[in-house]
Amino acid sequence: MNYLEELTKQESARQKNTLNLIASENYPSSKTLSLLGSMWNDKYAEGYPGKRYYAGNINADKLEEFVQTKALEAFNCQDDYGVNVQVLSGSPANAMVYFTVLEPGDTVLSLDLASGGHLSHLHNTSSYLKFFKHATYSLRGNKLHEAEFEQALKEHKPRLVVIGYSSYPASYTFDKLCEIAHAYGALVLADISHIAGLVATGHHPSPFAHGAKGADFVTTTTHKTLRGPRSGLVFAKEEYMAVINKTVFPGTSGGPHLNQIAAVCQSLLEVLGQESYPDKVSFNVYIENVVKNAKALEAGLKQGGVEVTTATSTHLVLVKLPEAVDSLTLQNDLEEMNIITNRNAVPNDTKPAWRPSGLRLGSAALTSRGMASDDFLTFGKLIGNYLMGNSTKVECQTSTSELLKNLKWYY
Fold first, then answer.
1. For residue 18, how many C-alpha atoms fall within 13 Å in the half-sphere facing its CB?
2. Beta strands in 201-346 (DSSP E)
3. What's this model's pTM, rounded to 2 decimal places?
4. Which fold, 282-405?
5. Any idea which fold 30-271 has?
6. From the CA atom positions of the chain, what is the Rg in Å?
7. Which residues in the chain land under pLDDT 50?
8. Which residues carry out catalysis?
9. Helical residues (DSSP H) of 226-282, grouped into ranges
């Protein structure tokens, strides 16, 4: 066995033998993974169906058109939107929108990072600030309020507003926020990377809608609550699809990664119930469990004495750590106990980004492995007791080992 093979074996064992609470990670089906290493990897397909720059794309054309159909079907947005399936991930998907609709000097308005925004929505060190201006809206009392949102629109007069967040546990209604943004002349980009699975199943309000209530653009990764491969999708209202497609190719990209596109298709078929995940649980029931399990995790954490920023109604829980707790040290301690988390800023955070004041926890990955709400409640209390100094590493390690014994592994 060579070194690469050994590393791959070690990573497989690490994933199998840890409790993964990272909100942006999940476990795709084995069929999805197999397509990433399939013959689709070998074909170059610059262009779009019916207009390629290489020969031999008969099947590639059929594949891309089929995936587009399934993506629109999964989000029930066929009447008003089109979709580009060639983008490689979520951040490039957002960039495609910026380069399509913005001119140098235009302003982008997004939620500030500490409140739950994402790095790809622009921030103080973003390379996009060479081209565009950036302004932020914030939370009030850890919640998103329309008044603050409207005040920011009135003050900054952005060309584009980003709605959709990376560490915001509550749900939010896109239609009203879109209406407000459109009333001030702004275009709307809805980034649903974290909540895409919830949107597709009706467990979270959707940004797809006719007229002013709908986002002009919707981007998403496919590997979080959609439980697919690492990839991305860009949806746009029909009037913007031609320019989005030109921005992706030939504007910024070469040949699409057909293996990724095929793997996305497999996960969309599972979302639609036309294929099954290995546990045979329907995707709708899976998402129901994801939300229920996040609430159980939150309840366990609170029973353990931990403060959460906002009650969850999604797949993630955001914990505010006691002032004396160093988030990097805690993250490393938990990893030693085979609990995988990520430290995260909280609203109005005053600590540096490398050692922020919070911990972000998600339920999607362990729900895929079959963990039930009772175990999520126990798990939350376990983490809370350790965090608050009421249990030892040895005690936590023992409990972690017991939880791992009953989890499924499909690879």
1. 21
2. 217-221, 232-237, 307-308, 316-320, 339-340, 342-344
3. 0.97
4. Aspartate Aminotransferase, domain 1 (3.90.1150)
5. Aspartate Aminotransferase; domain 2 (3.40.640)
6. 21
7. none
8. 44, 46, 191, 221, 224, 230
9. 238-246, 258-271
